[in-house]
Design goal:
CATH topology of the largest domain: Rossmann fold
Largest sheet: 5 strands, parallel
Strand order of the largest sheet: 3-2-1-4-5
Radius of gyration: 37 Å
Number of strands: 19
InterPro entries: 4Fe4S_Fe-S-bd, 4Fe4S_Fe_S_CS, Cys_rich_dom, DPD_II, FAD/NAD-bd_sf, HdrC_iron-sulfur_subunit, Helical_ferredxn
Mean pLDDT: 91
Keywords: 4Fe-4S, Iron, Iron-sulfur, Metal-binding, Oxidoreductase
CATH architecture of the largest domain: 3-Layer(aba) Sandwich
GO molecular function, one term: oxidoreductase activity
Distance between the termini: 45 Å
Oligomer: single chain
Protein name: Aldehyde dehydrogenase, iron-sulfur subunit
Pfam family, one: Fer4_17
Strand content: 5-15%
CATH class of the largest domain: Alpha Beta
CATH superfamily of the largest domain: NAD(P)-binding Rossmann-like Domain
Shape: elongated
């Protein structure tokens, strides 16, 4: 696994990028952080955040021209957040915050700042914090005199003096009544390591243009306009700050231009959607300024801008409390540092690999693909727990064995223009529908329609078993090639997806497209206009033709379609994806419940597993084939969901029946101890289902115990306790023999190998 490439992917996540209120502020005040703290009533914490970015805080905060408010995302929904009024509230109620500062070693470099206005003071303070000795030359008798004159209705002279004294306490030397003439400027340039001209009158005063000045004397940096009340106060701060960065880099002999693209105001890359979010109307102060309570209420209007589209959509990311960046760090930790041992295995095996996160992500980060690659890496290092996907892989192995696999040309022919591949799950739940579909296809399509029963290998792909998946696909390809490379018609969306991406020169067609193009059976029964919420299988996320075909079929059957919030390319998983149903069954149930909350209407599905999982959680769900081949609308959605044992038996019986009915062949193969009679009550059956124990496993344990007598007998109750290891799982069964059958008392399994004496 290329971990460096993985870490580069996390850089594409935009969620931790600042919102527009921050980026459009020339000095990047953390508005989001301030409103968060004010909303909690923490005015002193909010003040600390404000002071980090805003020098001369108690003055600038009162006269800031707040360009940020024009970019607030709530501007057209209740009004922009009153950021400036909140800044004033933060100063009023939080300015006594105790701010600790570490002493900074002084450098042997001196900087001169000409002009004690906003930009000059900002530049001086910033350079002082970097350890420079700074001298300010101001022609008036006080710093910020121009600002005071321009804003004296908002500013108190005492406040100005308090702020000036703070600057003096920093060790900054202030020379008042010190007008810098061209001659004096020459002396200053010679004496200091760097010079900032922060007065707006420099052009007239020094009678030289900026380009010439900077060409002749590199150490001189020029500021902007003189702020007199009509210009941007906060931009003046930004100008001084930018000058401080330039002077520092000049003195340190570093690039003056590198990595400065986000200096000053710039456009935010953060994408925020608030369509479904309620935004309260703007709070108006009853007095000239916010009270504490009013400030808190206004701050609570802030939606705390973030992208998190993937987290909002994906219950797995919500459950794990991870966004892509954090998830990728977790994977990196798991792979690079602790090499996959224990930590994060359950998290990694709980991803549905459904692709929803990538579909909604503005930059297309698909954690499903990353997780799949992670599982492959863990398998290759033998760090993937065998128990996680064991049952699914064994079920796949069974389905691709002689118990189910079947490859045939259409009866009576030696050529197939098409081949029907129903998939393992449809065959397990709806074996009768598979037969009806095959008859329909042979009737509607000319040129011969063959039949291929098997599994596409999806469990291996989901589980990270790359070689097993490749071998499975190679076998399927070879079998289709032997049929003459016919068009493959799939009923399963996962098969369609795997074949489309894995067998490039073979045409793949969805069964639903065939129905849509060729028409429905002549004896189809129309519905009564009922509204059904359509659930798209997540493996059809990019298949618009399948989406449209399903909807056209439903409409032609006289049903109305409701589109859930997450539909088509943004559909949610049913809970089976990534074989999470076997790796983390409890979470799988939560995923199913999350999906069915989206509509009060009955569901329409076209994946057998989707239909089964929804039905198991009590959601009335129709499979599209229920509508096509069912005869009674009131009953067709109540078809019983088969157990794991019944699913396997249904596949076996389907092959046996189709061989006999279509080709006149008998299937002689039998499972070990298949004829053994067992009696299981509902409680034990449910336990077996939860613990992934099949009836065939039970029979094999009992049959072997009865044959070898290698078991424990309890004379007090007549129960027998037997065990048998089947491949890598040991199954235990407690039973009692009653005449020619066996009553099952208990059953469980584990991976411990018990050796007899």
């Amino acid at each position: 696994m290329d971990l460096d490439k993985l870490l580069s992917i996390q850089d594409r996540c935009i969620n931790d990028n600042p919102p527009a209120c921050n980026t459009q502020c020339p000095i990047h005040v953390d508005v989001k952080g301030i409103t968060l703290e004010v909303g909690k009533g923490n005015f002193e914490e909010a003040y600390k955040i404000l002071k980090k970015r805003m020098p001369f805080t108690n003055i600038i905060g009162l006269i800031c021209d707040h360009p940020c408010e024009d970019f607030c995302i709530t501007k057209n929904l209740g009004g922009a957040i009153s950021i400036h009024e909140l800044e004033k509230a933060v100063i009023a109620y939080g300015k006594n915050a105790k701010i600790k500062k570490l002493p900074i070693p002084k450098l042997s470099k001196k900087i001169a700042v000409i002009g004690g206005g906003i930009s000059g003071v900002t530049c001086a303070c910033d350079l002082n914090e970097k350890g420079y000795s700074v001298d300010i030359f101001e022609k008036e008798n006080m710093l910020a005199n121009t600002i005071f004159e321009a804003y004296k209705e908002k500013l108190d002279l005492k406040l100005i003096q308090e702020e000036i004294s703070k600057i003096e306490n920093l060790g900054i030397e202030i020379e008042l009544n010190s007008e810098v003439t061209p001659e004096k400027l020459t002396d200053i340039i010679a004496e200091y390591d760097g010079v900032y001209i922060g007065t707006g009158e420099w052009k007239e005063k020094f009678d030289i243009d900026e380009a010439t000045l900077q060409t002749q004397i590199e150490k001189v940096f020029i500021g902007g306009k003189l702020v007199t009340g009509n210009e941007s106060v906060i931009q003046a701060v930004a100008t001084g700050r930018s000058a401080a960065v330039s002077l520092d880099r000049f003195v340190q002999k570093k690039s003056l231009t590198a990595s400065r693209g986000k200096e000053g105001a710039y456009e935010s890359v953060l994408e925020v959607e608030i369509n479904d979010q309620e935004v309260l109307p703007r709070i108006l102060p009853k007095d000239i300024a916010f009270s504490r309570e009013e400030a808190i209420d206004e701050a609570l209007r802030c939606i705390q801008c973030e992208c998190h589209k993937c987290v909002k959509a994906c219950i797995h990311l919500q459950k794990e409390k991870l966004d892509p960046k954090a998830y990728i760090r977790t994977i990196n930790q798991n792979e690079r540092i602790i090499l996959g041992d224990h930590y994060a295995n359950k998290t990694i095996n709980s991803c549905l690999e459904c692709g929803l996160c990538g579909a909604v992500c503005p930059t297309g980060i698909d954690m499903g693909e990353i997780i799949k690659e992670t599982r492959r890496s863990m398998v290759s290092k033998e760090k993937m727990p065998q128990s996680a996907h064991d049952f699914a892989l064994k079920d796949m192995e069974y389905t691709n064995s002689s118990y189910f696999e079947l490859v045939k040309h259409e009866p009576g022919t030696n050529n197939s223009s098409y081949v029907f591949y129903p998939g393992c799950q449809l065959s397990a739940t709806y074996p009768d529908y598979v037969i009806k579909v095959y008859k329909y296809l042979m009737e509607k399509i000319q040129g011969g329609v063959g039949l291929y029963l098997g599994c596409c290998g999806a469990p291996a792909d989901f589980a990270g078993q790359e070689e097993q998946f490749k071998n499975s696909m190679a076998k399927i390809y070879a079998n289709i090639e032997n049929l003459g490379k016919p068009v493959v018609i799939t009923a399963c969306s996962t098969c369609f997806n795997n074949f489309t991406t894995g067998m490039g020169d073979i045409e793949i067609k969805s069964l639903w497209e065939v129905f849509n193009e060729n028409g429905l059976p002549s004896d189809v029964k129309l519905g009564d206009g009922k509204i059904l919420a359509v659930h798209d299988a997540c493996t059809t996320r990019k298949e618009k033709n399948i989406h449209e075909s399903i909807r056209n079929i439903a409409k032609s059957l006289n049903y109305k379609i409701e589109e859930p919030k997450y539909t088509k390319e943004t559909t949610k998983c049913c809970g089976f994806g990534g074989v999470v149903y076997f790796a983390n069954k409890e979470f799988s149930k939560e995923v199913t419940e999350d999906r069915i909350k989206e509509s009060d209407n009955d569901f329409l599905a076209y994946c057998a597993m989707c239909r089964d999982l929804f039905t198991l959680k009590g959601k009335k769900t129709y499979h599209i084939l229920d509508l096509i081949f069912g005869n009674d609308e009131e009953n067709i959605s109540d078809i019983k969901v088969p157990t794991l044992s019944e699913r396997r038996a249904n596949r076996f019986k389907l092959k046996k029946k189709m061989l006999k009915d279509f080709w006149g062949e008998l299937m002689e193969i039998k499972d070990e101890y298949e004829d053994l009679k067992i009696v299981i009550d509902d409680n034990i059956r449910n336990k077996m289902e939860d613990e992934l124990i099949l009836e065939s496993d039970i029979k094999k344990v009992i049959g072997e115990a009865e044959k070898t007598k290698n078991s424990f007998f309890n004379p007090e109750n007549g129960h027998v306790l037997a065990w048998r290891r089947l491949v890598n799982v040991t199954f235990w069964v407690e039973y009692q023999k009653v005449e020619d059958s066996f009553n099952i008392i208990n059953a469980y399994s584990h991976r411990m190998h018990v050796t007899g004496v």
